[in-house]
């Protein structure tokens, strides 16, 4: 499983953990995270994340 870091604020999306607050189950790959996902801390889109 991979981790993706927000380039703006540093928030981390960990595929093994998912993001329950947004309804994204543990084990959800970054590719399967909805295209309209926004960083929960600063609000930028998926295109502003980099694989760690």
UniProtKB/TrEMBL annotation:
Binds 1 Fe(3+) ion per subunit. Pfam families: Rubredoxin. Its cofactor is Fe(3+). One of its GO terms (biological process) is alkane catabolic process. It comes from the Bacteria. GO terms for molecular function: electron transfer activity; iron ion binding. Fe cation binds at residues 6, 9, 39, 42. InterPro entries: Rubredoxin (IPR024922), Rubredoxin-like_dom (IPR024934), Rubredoxin_dom (IPR024935), Rubredoxin_ET (IPR050526). Residues 1-52 form the Rubredoxin-like domain. Keywords: Electron transport, Iron, Metal-binding, Transport. Belongs to the rubredoxin family. This is Rubredoxin. It comes from Candidatus Allofournierella pullistercoris.
């Amino acid at each position: 499983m991979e981790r993706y870091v927000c380039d703006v604020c540093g928030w981390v999306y960990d595929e093994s953990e998912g993001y329950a607050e947004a309804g994204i189950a543990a084990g959800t790959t970054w590719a399967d995270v909805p295209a309209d996902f926004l960083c929960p801390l600063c609000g930028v889109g998926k295109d502003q994340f980099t694989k760690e």
